[in-house]
From TrEMBL, chain A:
InterPro entries: Trp_synth_b_CS, Trp_synth_beta, Trp_synth_beta/beta-like, TrpB-like_PALP. This is Tryptophan synthase beta chain. Pathway: Amino-acid biosynthesis; L-tryptophan biosynthesis; L-tryptophan from chorismate: step 5/5. The modification N6-(pyridoxal phosphate)lysine is found at K99. CDD domains: Trp-synth_B (cd06446). GO terms for molecular function: tryptophan synthase activity.
TrEMBL record, chain B:
Pfam families: Trp_syntA. It is an enzyme of class 4 (lyase). Belongs to the TrpA family. It comes from Pseudohoeflea coraliihabitans. The active site is at E50, D61. Pathway: Amino-acid biosynthesis; L-tryptophan biosynthesis; L-tryptophan from chorismate: step 5/5. Its EC number is 4.2.1.20. Tetramer of two alpha and two beta chains. This is Tryptophan synthase alpha chain. It comes from the Bacteria.
Amino acid sequence: MNQPSTPNSFRTGPDEQGMFGIFGGRFVAETLMPLILELEEEWTRAKTDGSFKAELEALNTHYTGRPSPLYFAERLSAHLGGAKIYFKRDELNHTGSHKINNCIGQILLAKRMGKTRIIAETGAGQHGVATATVAARFGFPCEVYMGATDVERQAPNVFRMKLLGAKVNPVSAGNGTLKDAMNEALRDWVTNVDDTYYLIGTAAGPHPYPEMVRDFQSVIGRETREQLMAAEGRLPDMVVAAVGGGSNAIGLFHPFLDDASVKIVGVEAGGRGLEGEEHCASLTSGTPGVLHGNRTYLLQDDDGQIKEGHSISAGLDYPGIGPEHSWLKETGRVDYVPIRDDEALEAFQLLTRLEGIIPALEPAHALAEVIKRAPQMSGDEIIVMNLCGRGDKDIFTVSKILGMES
Amino acid sequence: MTTRIDSRFATLKAEGRPALVTYVMGGDPDFDTSLEILKALPDAGADVIELGMPFSDPMADGPAIQMAGRRALKQGQSLARTLELARRFRESDDETPIVLMGYYNPIYIYGVTRFLADAKSAGIDGLLVVDLPPEMDEELCLPALEAGVNFIRLATPTTDDKRLPAVLKNTSGFVYYVSMTGITGSAISDTSKVNEAVKRIKSHTDLPVCVGFGVQSAAQAQAIGQSADGVVVGTAIVRAMAASLDAEDSPTAGTVTAVRALVSELAGGVRAARLASVDEDAI
């Protein structure tokens, strides 16, 4: 890779072509290209427009409920007997996850661009719910593409989207998960390019989406810095987040990338273990390739066909990853590790009982890694983990697995 | 450098008729039948062959071509096997141009340099890669031109006059005008709009302009062939082939015949195109 192993700053990307090193780019059909260029122009204008910033901040404060608390998990820290563990409580946001941070930003852009229809893909349904929510709030018709498998395992979110007035289109191609939903959303977009805004839910896809979504989600890391400074008077020793497409993680990580003292850990879905094919650890065991508009690490065979992957968590069940994470892996700035389904389930139960917080299965993966690392650290060290979603949507899946159904 | 594509369009220009460009998915429904279908195409009246490279995630394709790709992959088709199909076809036909059509990832994984060398030696004349817009020309377009392989670009209804020069800049062989904003296999709505668009593109380039996406019948091929230098038919052929398969997606005695029959009909359409336009002018 033609890049210095240690850049002066990890926070300057992407370049004008939307590249983070060799990752990212704009690998899309010509039909979409003019629109993507238009979006980039609008985004560039909005970034320096005071009224856009003011509207975004007002909605973050009064609609989403930001800043989300930074919570010291006293009982969990004592139980693990090592580092002090803090949770960034983005699960307390309106709609129950970090996804709303990005949706509010993008719906304001859609409005500025004069678009009249919103589409989105969703895995766990958290992004679908957040999109349906902002579409209702701003009066846009909304269609959400969701894999048929996910429609089944995240039923409460399907119901919420419908209540919010969105049309949910189940996608039965492939395994019926996030990858298939994204293909179908792209097909809708290319057909309805004139009036439709594609509200991508993660920091992936063609430029400028990875950068734009990261910037909307970086509010997580910025708040964390300030809140931890106020609570402890210093930066954390480690920040940890789950990565599916990687939007909550890049939101937490980005403001800390140039603080060399802060160790950064991204947690992938190890599914049923990395020895087989039933996992979604694209960074740990994938290779670079091109899918869904960007070059990034993918789970694929030696003919370049994309594999399906598996995770207990619908939100992590994606064979790719945002391109900036691929670059952060190659530069060595961030450590990416896998956590298996069963480890995530244990973490899910531990947090529920020790802290009275039911996490989503996605951050339960991050928590499982915290459970491994905290005991190896000293009592004056600090870990901040992004608790990016709440577990209401997962209680039926979990109770079924634990045999707690009746 | 002159490729088979350039020669074929020059010949057709002299004959005063548009080309029939036929798309089939490589390896669909299986390797041997796919080869038989390829061999039947020129006799049935196809002037240029677009050979689909199956991909697991064909974002710009409708259900018919998605299913075709899935059938091919299930039978073990790969990029190497698609090149092998072309090589076998070339054993008996050294004139009909072949354009490989598909998505970038399998080529990227195969390795661009190795791919171009193997494609060239297999007798491939051009490439049409859906997810490589001009902004990504360094990936494959420029190396392909260097290697003497045509790079055919898509122009679409969203490609306005401002953007068109960038799209045409490194295009060679022909320009593929996508008749609508949509995925393959949607229904074409207004052929007169398409004809206007073809005229617009022709005012920017001397390259032949072929029109595809949504052409399903001989009558449509005839109407579009009045202004276009070529008419591309894909989904309709793939559907006719698929309809001939048995319940297990295996070929039947009618499979190759079904393709041949439709292609002959379409060939009649493009051959009547300019005659019809002459008649109209006379009236």
